Amino acid sequence: MQDLNISLLYAALSQGIHAQSDEECLELAVHIRVILYELAERLNAALQEHNELDAAVKRLASRKNPSTSAPDTSGK
Taking Cα atoms as reference points, which of 42, 43, 32 lies closest to residue 6? Predict the structure, then answer.
């Protein structure tokens, strides 16, 4: 769907919006704003999720886990 949004934006902008009436340009601008806002929101959410995942992986990786240590074979 994101590729479709970008294709629609490209099509709207490549038509030469200034060759259209002010009313048509304003209508296109409203639609373009909605699409750009949604894309920015989704990008922000994806980056936040990535950062949260990265932090969680780093916390687990830096944690000392006794189950991965070599077993005690001293017999004591």
Answer: 32
CA 32 to each of CA 18, 20, 29, 45, 58: distance values in angstroms, whole numbers, following the listed order: 15, 15, 5, 20, 39
Query: Tens-of-pLDDT digits for all 76 residues of the chain?
Result: 667 777 887 877 777 666 788 888 888 889 889 988 999 999 999 999 999 999 999 999 998 765 655 556 666 5
Of the candidates 2, 7, 9, 1, the one whose C-alpha atom is nearest the C-alpha of residue 31 is 9
Q: Are 12 and 36 in contact (CB under 8 A)?
A: no
Residue 35 burial (C-beta neighbours within 10 Å; 0-12, 13-18, 19+): middle
- Using CA atoms, how far apart are residues 62 and 65, in angstroms rounded to an integer? 9
